[in-house]
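Notes from the 1:1 (GR / supervisor)

We went over the backlog. Supervisor wanted to see one worked example end to end before approving the batch request, so GR pasted a single chain during the call. The sequence is below; no edits were made to it. Supervisor asked that the structure be written out right there so they could see what the output format looks like.
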Amino acid sequence: MIANFQKGPAPWLILLAVAVLGLVMFFKLNSTSNVYNSLRIKNLMDEARSQAQVYFESQTPRAYTASTMLLPAPFCSGDMFYGNFTNNLSSLTGSASAWPRGTTLSCQATALQFAISASLPPGDGPGETANTWCVDSSGKSIWIKNHLVVGDTNCN
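Structure output shown during the call:
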């Protein structure tokens, strides 16, 4: 009598399926991480705008402290944004540890206006053309194509 054995799938086919599933999960988790970091950056930017308003209201006379940055960096420079840790704005913008890894900031202020831009994870933004989030003293909270330049206190 001849035994009738059926073969299962080849071992290499099982390994291929596991590898494909692993790659799909890797890219899915990476995408989820970017979405989370993007939302976290936008939340921190809204908090920074609120704290800048508190800073403005606490000054006598009411004003922001003029500050400019030549290039985006992991944290902001200028008295309003860095070094004065008695206000919560400095604890947000004056420290790279508050932001997701790789985020760069540009903080600009005059006595009456301010704006802050933060880089977003790759691939975020409308049509992937604008990868920077901006908030300013007029209440804007929008995507912009590039970081703020020296003295730019409006999200355009």
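Supervisor's comment: The first strand starts at residue 105 and ends at 109.
Batch request approved.
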